[in-house]
Amino acid sequence: MKKMNTSCKILALLTSAALFISSAAARIVTDETGHTAEVPDSLNRILITNIYPLPSVLTLYLNSADKIIGIHPSSMAAAQNGLLSEIYPDITKANTGFMKGNVLNIESVLKLKPDVVLVNAADKQSLSKLEAAGIPTVAFSTSAQKYDAVRTYKSWIKTLDELFPDHAKADKASKYAENVKALIEERTKSIAHQNRKKVLWIYQNQNNKVTTSGKNFFGQYWAEAVGAKNVSKSIPAKTANAQVNMEQIYSWNPDVILITNFTPDTAENLIKNPLWAPISAVKNKEVYKLPLGFYRTYTPSADSPVLLYWLAKKIYPEQFKDIDLNNEARKYYREVFGIELTNEQLKKLFEPKPMKISTPTPGAA
């Protein structure tokens, strides 16, 4: 009897959702994977599944969190620790109970009555559930651009332009990002290969078991984009599965260590750890914690052009000594998104406090 009641309840919710969706004028949207969806012309209830950086991108894009009714718990953790919830406090009202890990509760989704669900393209199970329920879905991918973070960011903005043509920002965002890339490339192209800095990424670190970035993750892109060398490029493991031991790190002897916001590690505690003392980056105090902007900056996000500047200046300070990070960040967020950051917010961006980590599934970012 309980099974029958649950089935009837879901059927009623499906019927209600179908009627709700069909009552609105609709149009066809094609996402970056080539998937098409019929979405209402007016999108006022948006739910975002396990594409963790996307809530921050969408909030900045719309300059509001009012339309976002649900986000993943990991997205919420980053929002609460970074600038997103400070500038857009309404994001904290978004529901997070519809998904645990990568498991989507379709009944919970239906109760929220979304106009559209923005979903991780790699999560085929959630896509199938949503489509079977008749809910418009638009997919976003972290890997379709081969972990090129800036191209991914630009692709997401282009898809958002399709969803929200009245807010079109793709041309402006793309032009800004390309100008930053071109400036960095011009200033680093003459650095001889043997003089390029060797960079180690610390994606996660538990009991000195370090997860880094092989060639199939964002660390490879960021290193190349600023004229550096990713010491772990040869690791065959994909995405966040590239775990290495300290003996391997000693043999690489990186010049620079970059710590993401997917670990509570800080530059200070790594430098003080005697296990890391033999490494050149630690000896020279070239250990840096990545900025925590509107999302964790290691991944594609609205912060990506700012991270390019930050990385270039940290790794090659002489080549970029004229770059004022505060001025560049203030200019970028103002010109592309219409946001005016205060000095206090810029300090919080570039000097993040350790956050409580809600760790995404490896590779999802």
Can you lay out the helices and strands and say which pair or pack?
Elements: H1 2-22, E1 26-30, E2 36-40, E3 46-48, H2 54-62, E4 68-70, H3 73-81, H4 84-87, E5 99-100, E6 103-104, H5 106-112, E7 116-120, H6 124-132, E8 137-140, H7 149-163, H8 170-188, E9 198-202, E10 204-206, E11 209-211, H9 218-225, E12 229-230, E13 243-244, H10 246-252, E14 256-259, H11 267-272, H12 280-283, E15 287-289, H13 304-315, H14 325-337, H15 343-350
- Give the C-alpha Rg: 21 Å
Which outline best applies?
A: globular
Q: How many helices?
A: 15
Sketch the major β-sheet: 4 strands, parallel
How much strand content do the residues show?
Answer: 5-15%
**Portion in helices:** 40-55%
Rounded average pLDDT: 91
> Could you spell the SSE succession in H and E letters?
HEEEHEHHEEHEHEHHEEEHEEHEHHEHHH
